[in-house]
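Q: Could you predict the 3D structure of N-acetyltransferase domain-containing protein?
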Amino acid sequence: MYSTKSIRQFSWDDAAKVVRFLNEASGSMGTEKEVSESLFKDWHSMPGSNPIEDCFISIDETDKKSINGFIHFISEPTIDRIVAIQTVKPHTNRRKTTTDFEQLTRQYQGNRDLKFMHIQIARSDPEWSRTLNDGGWIKVKEYMNLRCDPSDTLNFPEYSLPEKFSIAPLDPEIELSEFTKLQNEAFGEHWGFSPNTEEEISKRISMERSGEEGILVIKENNKLAGYNWTLFASNGFESTGWVSMTGVAPEFRGMRLGRAVVTAGMNYLIGKNVGAIELEVDSENVPARQLYASLGFKMISETEWYQLTSRKIS
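A: Sure. Here are the predicted structure tokens for N-acetyltransferase domain-containing protein:
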């Protein structure tokens, strides 16, 4: 495996130090968005994951106890790709860290028969942008991060549903299999979506910030037609909610069910007194952008996805 004086593989003994680094780098330390060590371990204990082989740390060469970056690779063989999730903190030699990580992605991909490597960066990140462009990566997608202030939604509209449709929290003990099928069908044609298994979805439901009560499903009689998966974080003083995923089965599209279930999810989060609701949307998904704008969401930042295609695979 690729290594330098400044990069080494992760071990579970590093967990507390890495969690602290991630919170400091994101500005989340001491806020409701601070990632706990238990949530970090859940993220890296998904079915099929192996953080000892798939995670790497960039160490400050002048202070071996200091972390400059962390990168986590997720292999998705069903769609022939690897995703590199990276965090690199601002420091004087940041370009060297991004370059080291870029070389690491190449070697990691070279050891696996998967065609695509994808990495997401902030649009305002000059070091990563230069590193990827110099390395021949191609920008393939842009996403927008949106936020809604619930204090601006005092006259927030109630949702309406066609006859025979209802909204209720997911019951995983009864509906997990059908819900898994719904999610895979709803996102089957979306860029970058890798089909989920029941085991994976069950694990995500059980994680901190999630929970079955925050997953609202639309039903026609007893058949699942769509859903809105929300997340919630609080430190006792501040709280934030996220619209994590919203999907409608292909056969039920065109009935305004997406608007209804997003509105229901937002009402659920507003009922928990969140200070803000956030989400991510594909910049090319104009209908979704228009929906969120009509519900009070405004853009706060943008990200870009870059792609490297393996030369070993035609």
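Q: Anything worth pointing out?
A: Residues 190 and 290 are 18 Å apart (CA to CA).
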